[in-house]
Structures are given as structure tokens and as C-alpha cells.
Specification:
Chain A: Belongs to the HUS1 family. The complex is a heterodimer of chains A (about 260) and B (about 425). Chain A has about 260 residues and is of the alpha+beta class. Helix content of chain A is about 20%, strand content about 40%. In chain A, strands 5-1-7-8-9 form a five-stranded antiparallel β-sheet. Chain A folds into two domains: about 1-145, Box (Proliferating Cell Nuclear Antigen), CATH 3.70.10.10; about 155-255, Proliferating Cell Nuclear Antigen, CATH 3.70.10.10. The two termini of chain A are about 40 Å apart. Chain A has helices spanning about 10-25, 60-65, 85-95, 165-175, 215-220, 235-240, and strands spanning about 1-5, 30-35, 40-45, 55-60, 65-70, 80-85, 100-105, 110-120, 125-135, 135, 155-160, 180-185, 190-195, 200-205, 230-235, 250-255. Chain A is elongated. Among the domains of chain B are: about 1-70 and about 80-135, Proliferating Cell Nuclear Antigen, CATH 3.70.10; about 145-190 and about 200-270, Proliferating Cell Nuclear Antigen (Box). Helix content of chain B is about 15%, strand content about 30%. Chain B has helices at about 10-20, 85-90, 95-100, 160-165, 195, 225-240, 280-290, 405-410, and strands at about 1-5, 25-35, 35-40, 50-55, 60-65, 65-70, 75-80, 80-85, 105-110, 115-125, 130-135, 135, 140-145, 150-155, 175-180, 185-190, 200-205, 215, 220-225, 245, 255-260, 265-270, 295-300, 380-385. In chain B, the strands form five sheets. Chain B has a ten-stranded antiparallel β-sheet with strand order 12-8-2-3-4-22-21-20-14-18. A five-stranded antiparallel β-sheet of chain B has the order 5-1-9-10-11. Chain B has a four-stranded antiparallel β-sheet with strand order 17-16-15-19. Chain B is globular and about 55 Å long. Strand 9 of chain A pairs antiparallel with strand 17 of chain B, so a sheet runs across the interface.
Chain lengths: ~260, ~425
């Protein structure tokens, strides 16, 4: 198994750092899948009641100027690694003004992802910083658990409002209740609601827009004003919102 | 007796010095002399010492005098032997930025009759804040360490060191500095094999041109405590002065110092000695466990700077599991110098060769007439700051564990009297 990649562009490096910071906030350990075209950060939590799953996909061409990998075998040309996401995030944070960043899979007594950074210092001499992040190779028999999740067909899909706004609303609601009700309809309305014995608080977002429907037949006969609702654990939602560091062009909520 | 005054911005530097010393220990000596006001701190296992000396020019006004005590037969002059708890003094200098903004003047003076140090802040809008801090009578320790005799010296801007320090997590206990004439490398060090699979190993290479002064006499790798380095770094950022690092071979203490016109700061840290190859016998294991670091030695007086070898009668061991003990101020005249030995929990390597290790045992800082004793040791010593105090010492070789008279010594394993 081999993997080596290099980032030279500052903007790409910045973006990659922010993605890894976001992953670090969402999950303590995650799986990293390396395939010829893509890099994936995967978290699959099998907890039945409200476990969080995450699947993050990066096109390697968008980030790396050089990318070479050799998977476990030719038929299974992928590498699955398990690592502590905080370690990667912290290592990348030290690369803020780097001239170049190289990542490679190494074996120094145990498998590591070695991040090697060439920093340009003020006195125009370069400093080399190296971080060896310990990783575990995930055996092939566990790969099936880490495949791309299929997003089930939804009743309603709506674009989310600015995540920062949503986060501050949800944060305040967290103090009142552990469960949040999200209601959305096909007219671009989204409601965030909590209900307790003493009080009921609802925040309404209007005119959000709906993404084009994937399957026309399922929702054709649905009344656009009719709300679909789900109950979720507010803390998990907050964890997701708090982790957002990458400004999305679009965030979609499906119910 | 001490009486001094400083302005708001000077209070900030003073406060930063206290904060840096608080990383070393929970106790602080205030030690005025004609050279200026020294703040000293030693950690309980004597593996780190910090001293910040503010020259009289630093202050707006500075007055100092010794007190003369008349005993039955003679009169002895004594310095202000003032030891303060960090818990008392650190909160006073907590919000340094706001202190700098609001404080116009600060006065510090002592009232020996009541064993108090009074710190007064004259703030804006006519507000005056007075803090009375009780101190304990205790003779300060001073390290005698010839930093200019070290074969390796590096002088670096604090900013560069700060950038290196950022690489390591705060849970990193020790770091290793490896030098060759061509490069300097700061890397994380970990003794336990268990740690390796969980923690990130980081290293940073810095070229010689980044240093203000670069002199490497001998290629070496020294390992020392990270927390103490960070303490020194935060202080140096306040003074904007470059940090000089003096060191030699592993086992010999290293010095981090800042020399400015108005103040001089020295942090002397013990470094991990090299691992020997042979196995140690139980006896030497016991002894050598305490010799894992070249402990800074303490003796109440400056003398016998001999390089005598540690004999087997050297003080008994403090085993690894002993938590580092605090210095307990002994106000009562007990005969027990606390043998604080470094059972520092981070010391892991065993040095079986006790005859070579510059080891030290610590004798107490308290003024114990006739009770302190001197052990053999190493290249570094602590001496009492006021050496006009004639103490005679009995060279005593005690058995490994002796019962203590006083309560605090009950806690010190292998402590002797």
C-alpha cells in the first residue's frame, strides 16, 4: 500500500485544513478512504437511536498537485485508514504559511500518516516540520461498513438558511429542550420548533427555496404547504452546525 | 526590608515574571539585595529553578536593607527571607492587561514585624487597592550554574521559539532539543512505548541562520520539561528580549536566560540523563531512580563544589511513584532538611551508573542551624542566598528511610534528617 500526495497551493491547503478541522469537530475518530480519484472522510455510527453518520468526499484533483496511491490490491484499489481526526487537524494547522505540504503513508514501527511541511520563515530560510500521525489500517472485511450511504428518498427537501443563523437559534433552543422538531415544506418554509411543558418556541424561516425534486412521482401529489416533520436530538444537530467551517454553497435538509 | 515602586507597564512585566515562575512551583521567594529584587522559585523535585532579578533601575524607586537580629551572644544580619505562596500572589497579578491600563503606580513593601508583604496599586480615578500577603520565613535557594561554561549556546528570538512550541500539544510532557553544527531540531519525546501509537510525533528543524547567536561545541540531544519552557517563553514575549539557551550533554542542566538592561531571568532545568545499557541491581535501581534527572542540587551554603562520586550511602531513593513533594516551610526549628528527591513522575530512564551521575540530593532550604547536610553530587548547586549565615553542616549518611520528626517529612519518602 502506498500513498503520497503534495499540496503547493495556499488556498487549497487552507481549504483542506478547514475541512479537516470540521471533521475533527464532528467525530473523534474517523475513517479515511483513499482512492485514485477521491479522498473520503467517513464516520459511521451504528447507534440505533440517533447515531450520526458522516460521509465527506473530496476530489483529489481539487487539492493536490501530486497524488499517487496504490491500494491493497489491484481489484481493491483503495486504502482505508482509521485515525484520530484531531491529530490531522492540528498537524495541518501548523502549516498555515507553508510553501509545500506532503502527506504520505509510512511505516515507522507502526503505520503513520507523515505530514511534512516546508515553512518559509521570515529570514527566508526554510524550516521543515514533520508530524507522524499514527493510523490503523482497516482490514478489507470491514470495508463494507464504510461505503457511501444512500440517502433515502425524502418527502421534502429544502435549502437551509445561513448556517450561522441557524446555529445561533438552535443553540438558544438547546437550553430549553433536548429534542428539536424540524418542519419543512415544498414552499421553501422551514420551522425549528421546541415544545416543553411550559413553553413552545418556533423559529420560522421563509423563502428558502427547494432543490429540484429527484423523483417526480413521489412528491407530485404533495401539497406544497404541507409540513413534513422530524424529531431530532438537538445536541447532535448542534454538533453538526458547530463544526461547519467550510461555507457551503448549498446545504440541504431532507425529511 | 524592602520598599519599591513601579509604574503600570512595569507591573505587567513583574506580573509576567510571577506567572512564568508559577509554572515551576507553587512557592515564590522574594529576595531583595543590593543587586535588585530577585524572584526565585524551585520545583519540589528540584529539577527546575527560576530566578528573575529586577535591577534597581527597573523600579521607580528601590530601597532595601537587611535587618539585624540581636541574639544572646551575637547579632546576625539577615536578609528578608520571604517565601510567598503562588496561590496568594498569582491572583493579584492576574489580569495584566487591565493592570497595565489602570494602574498608575504600584508599591511593594514589607512589614517584617507582621511577616507581611504589602502590595498597593494606585489606580485611576483615585482607587487604591491594597493586598496584604503573609509570608513565611524561609531562606531562598539559589542555583550556582556557570552558564557561560556550557559548550553549546543558542540565542533565539522568542517568536521563533513560539512557532516551534505551537507544534506540540499541551499534553506533551517532554521535548528534545537535538543540535548539530548544521541544524537544530526540536522534537517531541516520549518514553513510554504505549504513547507512540496514540500520539503524534512532531519535529521541527531550524537552520542556524535563524538564531541570533549559534555556537555548538558538541553534538547533543537533551530532553527537558516542556511546561517550563513554555513558562519562560511567555515571559520573554513580555520583555521582547531574545532567549539564550545554554546546554551541554544530557544529564547536565540547561539554562534558559534573558538578559536585559533592567532585568535578568534565568531558568535552569534538569535534563534527562542518558539511558545506560546495563541492568541495575535493586540497590542501584533504588538509588538511580532518583537520579534519573540530574537534579539540581540544593545546599544551604555554597561549598563543596566537589565532584565527588555518589557513594552507596547516598540518600535513599525516592521511587518513581512518589509525587513531587512541596517544600514545606519549616518555621519551627526542626532538624530536618527535606530530602526532596525527584520522584518526578516523568522520569523513567534508569541510570544504573551511579558513580557517574551527577546526582544530587537536596537539602533543605530552611535555615536549620546545624542540621542540613550536604550530599555528593553534581554540577549544580543551590546555595543559600545569604551566605553570611554560618551554618555548620554535619555530613551525615543516613539510612534509607528514617522516621521524621515533623509531619511534613512523614510525607517524604526516604527523607532524612
Amino acid at each position: 500500500m502506498k500513498f503520497r500526495a503534495k499540496i503547493v497551493d495556499a488556498a487549497c491547503l487552507n481549504h483542506f485544513t478547514r475541512v479537516s478541522a470540521m471533521i475533527a469537530k464532528l467525530a473523534k475518530t474517523c475513517a479515511l478512504r483513499i482512492s485514485p480519484q477521491k479522498l473520503n472522510f467517513i464516520l459511521s455510527d451504528k447507534v440505533a437511536s440517533g447515531g450520526v453518520s458522516m460521509w465527506c468526499e473530496l476530489e483529489q484533483e481539487n487539492f493536490f498537485s501530486e497524488f499517487q496511491m496504490e491500494g491493497v490490491s489491484t481489484e481493491n484499489n483503495a486504502i482505508y485508514l482509521e485515525l484520530t481526526s484531531e491529530n490531522l487537524s492540528r498537524a495541518l494547522k501548523t502549516a498555515q504559511n507553508a510553501r509545500a505540504l506532503k502527506v504520505k503513508l509510512t511505516n515507522k514501527h507502526f503505520p503513520c500518516l507523515t505530514v511534512s511541511i516546508e515553512l518559509l520563515s521570515v529570514s527566508s530560510s526554510s524550516r521543515i516540520v514533520t508530524h507522524d500521525i499514527p493510523v490503523k489500517v482497516i482490514p478489507r472485511k470491514l470495508w463494507k461498513d464504510l461505503q457511501e450511504p444512500t440517502v433515502p428518498d425524502s418527502d421534502v427537501s429544502v435549502y437551509l438558511p445561513v448556517l450561522k443563523t441557524m446555529k445561533s437559534v438552535v443553540e438558544k433552543m438547546r437550553n430549553l429542550s433536548n429534542h428539536l422538531i424540524i418542519e419543512a415544506n415544498l414552499s421553501g418554509d422551514l420551522n425549528l420548533k421546541i415544545e416543553t411543558e411550559l413553553v413552545c418556541v418556533t423559529t420560522h424561516f421563509k423563502d428558502l427555496g427547494n432543490p429540484p425534486l429527484a423523483s417526480e412521482d413521489a412528491s407530485q401529489d404533495r401539497d406544497p404547504a404541507q409540513m413534513a416533520e422530524v424529531h431530532i436530538d438537538i445536541r447532535k444537530l448542534l454538533q453538526f452546525l458547530a463544526g461547519q467551517q467550510v461555507n457551503p454553497t448549498r446545504a440541504v435538509c431532507k425529511e | 526590608m524592602l520598599k519599591c515602586g513601579m509604574s503600570g507597564s512595569q507591573v505587567k512585566v513583574f506580573g509576567k515574571a510571577i506567572q512564568a515562575l508559577s509554572r515551576i512551583s507553587d512557592e515564590l521567594w522574594l529576595d531583595p539585595s543590593e543587586k535588585g529584587l530577585a524572584l526565585r522559585s524551585v520545583n519540589s523535585c528540584r529539577s527546575a529553578y527560576g530566578c528573575v532579578l529586577f535591577s534597581p533601575l527597573f523600579f521607580q524607586h528601590y530601597q532595601w536593607s537587611t535587618s539585624v537580629k540581636v541574639n544572646e551572644n551575637d547579632s546576625t544580619t539577615s536578609n528578608l527571607n520571604c517565601k510567598l505562596g503562588m496561590k496568594s500572589i498569582l491572583p493579584i497579578f492576574r489580569c495584566l492587561n487591565s493592570l497595565e491600563r489602570n494602574v498608575e503606580n504600584c508599591r511593594i513593601f514589607t512589614r517584617s514585624d507582621q511577616c507581611k508583604v504589602v502590595i498597593q496599586f494606585f489606580c485611576r480615578h483615585g482607587i487604591r487597592r491594597t493586598h496584604n500577603v503573609c509570608f513565611q520565613e524561609s531562606q531562598p535557594l539559589q542555583v550556582i550554574f556557570e552558564k557561560n561554561m556550557c559548550s553549546n549556546t543558542l540565542v533565539i528570538q522568542p517568536r521563533v521559539l513560539a512557532e516551534a512550541v505551537v507544534l506540540f500539544t499541551s499534553s506533551q510532557e517532554e521535548v528534545t532539543l537535538a543540535v548539530t553544527p548544521l541544524s537544530v531540531c526540536l522534537k517531541s519525546s516520549s518514553d513510554e512505548p504505549m504513547d507512540l501509537t496514540n500520539s503524534v510525533y512532531s519535529e521541527m528543524f531550524v537552520g542556524p541562520e535563524e538564531f541570533d547567536f549559534f555556537q555548538i561545541g558538541v553534538d547533543t540531544e537533551i530532553t527537558f520539561c516542556f511546561k517550563e519552557l513554555k513558562g519562560m517563553l511567555t515571559f520573554s514575549e513580555a520583555t521582547h528580549a531574545p532567549i539564550a539557551i545554554h546546554f551541554d550533554f544530557p544529564g547536565k542542566p540547561m539554562a534558559l536566560s534573558i538578559d536585559d538592561m533592567l532585568l535578568e531571568a534565568n531558568f535552569i532545568l534538569a535534563t534527562l540523563a542518558d539511558e545506560p545499557s546495563r541492568a541495575s541491581s535493586p540497590q542501584s535501581l533504588c538509588l538511580s531512580q532518583k537520579q534519573k534527572r540530574s537534579d539540581l542540587m540544593c545546599s544551604p551554603n555554597n561549598n563543596s563544589k566537589t565532584g565527588k562520586n555518589v557513594t552507596s550511602k547516598a540518600p535513599g531513593c525516592i521511587l518513581r511513584k512518589t509525587a513531587p513533594k512541596r517544600l514545606h516551610p519549616n518555621e519551627t526549628q526542626t532538624d530536618v532538611p527535606a530530602l526532596e528527591n525527584c520522584g518526578s513522575p516523568i522520569m523513567k530512564r534508569v541510570n544504573g551508573d551511579i558513580s557517574e551521575v551527577p546526582e544530587s540530593s537536596v537539602s533543605d532550604t530552611e535555615e536549620m542551624p546545624g542540621s542540613s547536610y550536604l550530599r555528593k553530587f553534581s554540577c549544580m548547586f543551590f546555595g543559600a542566598v545569604s551566605s553570611d549565615q554560618q551554618e555548620h553542616f554535619n555530613h551525615r549518611f543516613d539510612s534509607l528511610a528514617t522516621a521524621s520528626d515533623t509531619e511534613e517529612d512523614m510525607n517524604n519518602v526516604g527523607c532524612r534528617k
